[in-house]
Design goal:
Layout lengths: L14 H31 L12 H15 L3 H7 L5 E4 L7 E4 L4 H10 L12
Helix pairs in contact: 2-4
Length: 128
């Protein structure tokens, strides 16, 4: 976890900064562990029929199997890196009222965020 929680630079000027850095690293590790457990639970359910007619269509199950394959091929650090630069840009003006652009978002990304329980903004128009 040294590369992920700023542990490469162990030098600090005083003990208060050391304690602060250790505290932040501890909190980051707790979040990392929570997300790892959440992804493990998600992987166990992806691509499996649930008995819900809306969910159990071939299209949905195929998308879930593709997401599962993508998740199995990546570490948690790589998944976090993939979502590191996603941005939402809103264009305003007469020529393009209420246009929202989400960078680097695919249908797989939307499905991943939905299955994790994310309820923020997503743009289905821009999903590829």
């Amino acid at each position: 976890f040294k590369q992920k929680a700023d542990g490469k630079k162990p030098r600090v000027w005083d003990s208060d900064r050391l304690r602060g850095r250790e505290f932040v690293q501890f909190v980051a590790l707790a979040y990392y562990d929570f997300l790892y457990a959440k992804l493990k639970a998600l992987k166990a359910t992806l691509g499996q029929p649930t008995g819900d007619k809306k969910h159990d269509t071939e299209t949905v199950l195929k998308e879930e199997r593709a997401l599962l394959k993508w998740l199995k091929a990546r570490s948690l650090h790589e998944v976090l890196g993939w979502f590191d630069a996603v941005e939402i840009t809103r264009l305003t003006g007469k020529g393009h009222p209420a246009i929202k652009i989400v960078t680097e978002q695919t249908r797989r990304d939307q499905l991943f965020l939905e299955r994790l329980g994310y309820q923020g903004e997503m743009s289905p128009k821009n999903a590829a």
